[in-house]
Design brief:
By secondary structure, the protein is an alpha/beta fold. It has two domains: about 120 residues, Rossmann fold (3-Layer(aba) Sandwich); about 190 residues, Rossmann fold (3-Layer(aba) Sandwich). The protein is built from twelve helices and twelve strands. A seven-stranded parallel sheet has the order 8-7-6-9-10-11-12, with helices on both faces. Strands 2-1-3-4-5 form a five-stranded parallel sheet. Helix 9 links the parallel strand 9 and strand 10. It is globular. Bound molecules: 1,4-dihydronicotinamide adenine dinucleotide. The site of 1,4-dihydronicotinamide adenine dinucleotide (NAI) has 30 residues, from helix 4 and helix 6.
């Protein structure tokens, strides 16, 4: 199979080449997949795409026209793919359903600990010879209540780690995870969770139901001074409402690994340029906001598993006409 790999960073190429071991013809491109770059997939049977590639209806139609028959996602999330268009054009979509939920869960905990104990500020202070503690006051995690929105693979591990800290865990999820029930997690509705949690962390996928699940109304129901963390997908939070919550003081601190308009920012070095997104630039002005650029997945173990599963999907498609881990087509109607 010939596969055009979009949004390739050097680390993607290293891990994919090693997993491929010469089996398929991989063409690595740095640019994102968009309506303007889709033509570069000409001659390929498959494209390999990441989270900020555009797989909307127009791009899918163009890929189909070029003869592409498989989209091999290097991600678990598939909210950026128009699955209806893929089904209509007979393009199969494969994904990596689990590569290392530990990577993302541990990054979530890193954000919580850093924000709480203000390590991002302490690091800079100490390097400047400032050993004063004013402004670095945190709280004990022990005894605090954490609300987890979405207790799948990642949310379940977040729950387990925080249970070790002595936190009480509330959760909301249409499906109760037996693993979490065994840990003593109490399932409740979103309102109750928001009203009782000292920390709210988002671990659900982005779907039409979860888009802006955290909006101005939801923020108004949170405990004053709440910490809000999001390592799932940016658009589960309404960023304008988040900023308003920070300005009013309802929200005490925010940790984000994802941002709803991240496609034009993340994974690129913009340090010699400037940030055109005024909303994002405003977020960065708050000392109690910590943003990382979608690095939750970025561990050796996760990159190894992503590459292996992506190549398994491609090999299975070449052999049987279907990836090992297909993204199901949406129900008709
Ligand atoms: P998962 O599918 O195992 O779990 C998601 C859970 O969310 C499920 O239990 C589901 O029932 C629940 N859910 C769905 N709708 C909900 C709603 N309205 N309210 C509450 N819960 C709801 O997925 P996993 O592996 O835990 O990943 C979760 C998300 O994390 C992914 O969809 C992806 O968007 C994001 N992610 C972020 C990464 C990063 O680098 N920051 C890397 C990998 C995933």
């Amino acid at each position: 199979m010939r596969v055009t790999v979009f949004s390739t960073k050097p680390y993607d190429e290293d891990y994919l080449r090693s997993a491929n071991d010469g089996a398929h013809d991989l063409v690595f491109l740095e640019m994102r997949l968009t309506a303007d770059t889709a033509a570069l997939a000409r001659g390929s049977d498959a494209v390999c795409a990441f989270v900020n590639d555009d797989l909307g209806a127009d791009v899918i139609a163009e890929l189909a026209r070029l003869g592409v028959r498989l989209v091999a996602l290097r991600s678990a999330g598939f909210n950026h793919v128009d699955l209806g268009a893929a089904a209509e054009h007979g393009i199969a979509v494969g994904r990596v359903p689990a590569y290392s939920p530990h990577a993302v869960a541990e990054h979530t905990i890193a954000l919580i600990l850093t924000l709480n104990r203000k390590l991002h500020r302490a690091y800079n202070r100490v390097r400047e010879g400032n050993f004063a503690l004013d402004g670095l006051l945190g709280f004990d995690l022990h005894g605090k209540t954490v609300g987890i929105v979405g207790t799948g693979q990642i949310g379940g591990i977040v729950a387990r780690i925080l249970t070790g800290f002595g936190c009480t865990i509330l959760a909301t999820d249409p499906d109760r995870n037996p693993y979490c029930l065994n840990l003593g997690v109490r399932y409740t509705d979103l309102d109750d969770l928001l009203g009782h949690s000292d920390i709210v962390t988002m671990q659900c996928p982005l779907t039409p139901q979860t888009r802006h699940l955290i909006d101005a109304d939801a923020i108004a129901r949170m405990k004053p001074g709440v910490m809000v963390v999001n390592t799932s997908r940016g658009a589960v939070i309404d960023t304008a409402a988040l900023i308003a919550g920070l300005k009013s003081g309802t929200i005490g601190s925010v940790g984000l690994d994802v941002y709803e308009e991240e496609a034009d920012l993340f994974f690129e070095d913009l340090s010699q340029s400037f940030i055109r997104d005024d909303v994002f630039a405003r977020l960065l002005t708050f000392p109690n906001v910590l943003v990382t650029g979608h690095q939750g997945f970025f561990t050796h173990e996760a990159l190894t598993a992503i590459a292996r599963t992506t190549l398994d999907n491609i090999a299975a498609f070449a052999r049987d006409g279907a990836p090992v881990h297909p993204v199901p087509a949406p129900a008709a109607g």
